[in-house]
Amino acid sequence: MLNPVLFYITLLHCKPMKYILTSLALILSFGFTNTNPDAILGVWQNGSGKGHIHIYKQSGKYFGKIVWLKSPMGDDGRPRVDKKNQDESMRTKPLIGAIMLRDFAYEDGEWNGGRIYNPEDGKEYKAYMKMKDRSTLTVRGYVGFSWIGKTDIWQRVK
């Protein structure tokens, strides 16, 4: 059986191969880094698969609204509404079309400084988002400090 370490060392003695392997290792070590602030635009499915959120740009900031729900109708046969919202005037508004993400700004590979609304508890949290790759978005909502929160992994909808 061929020892991978010895094979790699043997390849390093070949000068062109040394440069190729070193360059490849360097590229792979950095992983996916996003330098395009608008790469986040599009429709994303939340981690539970219960909703799709359309992320869009408005006045230089990033927002997201609910555009699809797995269960769009409530028990009464009417469109599901935001019944847990802390603002009583919002409790009769349909969840589809509700703004869930607001006021995010892009900085150093992350979208931060924004707020995320959780319709399951009717509360809004500080949040930041980061793309893991072109089709995976890490969304973290938190209270106070970012280490006191919850992370959800969203997938891009094609």
Q: Which percent range describes the beta-strand content?
A: 35-45%
Rg measurement, Å: 22 Å
**H/E topology pattern:** HHEEEEEEEE
Low-pLDDT segments, ≥5 res: 21-32
Principal-axis shape equals globular
Largest sheet: 8 strands, antiparallel, barrel
- Which structural class do the helices and strands define? alpha+beta
Note the total helix count: 2
Topology, number of strands: 8
Strand order of the largest sheet: 1-2-3-4-5-6-7-8
Taking all residues together, what is the mean pLDDT? 86
Terminal Cα span: 44 Å
What is the helix fraction of residues, given as a range? 10-25%
Characterization of the model:
With 158 residues, the protein is an alpha+beta fold. 16% of the residues lie in helices and 41% in strands. The chain has two helices and eight strands; from the N terminus they run ααββββββββ. The protein has an eight-stranded antiparallel barrel. A hairpin with a 2-residue loop joins strand 4 (99-107) and strand 5 (110-118). The model is unreliable at 21-32 (pLDDT under 50).
In short:
With 158 residues, the chain is of the alpha+beta class. Helix content is 16%, strand content 41%.
